[in-house]
Fold this protein.
Amino acid sequence: MYASSLAVPALLIALLHADSPAADPPPLDEHLEPLRPWIDKTFRGEFAGSTPEKPQVDVSRWERALNGRAIRVLHSINDGGYGGESLIFWDSDANRIAFHYFTTAGFRTTGFITVEGRKLTSHEKVSGNAGGATEVRATIELGPDGTMTSKAELLKDGKWVPGHEIRYREDPKAEVKFR
């Protein structure tokens, strides 16, 4: 009798909460809140110039990290032929959003991000051999339809040259792979 008397209230509580709104999303550092539209999303993108004969596909996963004190972005190109990991965080010394990017090619970058609505602008310095690039400037924009575009330019031999241009769509089934 004791067990059955507990089952009814438990059932009522479960039914009452079944239609309640989802719990609040896990917290982020207040300075990283503008990046929330990207969190918990996986994007699959094709580079401009990608062809069926020579595909260039990037998969990028954005997630909350370090109890909300950072955002982790993992990405891989062509199933792990190249990849990288970024940690985005609030740099209180610089009073800006900063990041560190590590690559499977052995080079790394450090930089800062400016957020304006759903557009990110970054400027980073390259350490290690990145094919002659010493700096990178990029923009990432999340469109109202959920598509994401990424464009970059590289500083090589003292001149800014075009880098990549990628158009992404959200794809929860896509996977970041490393070899």
User: Anything to note?
Assistant: Helices lie at 2-18.
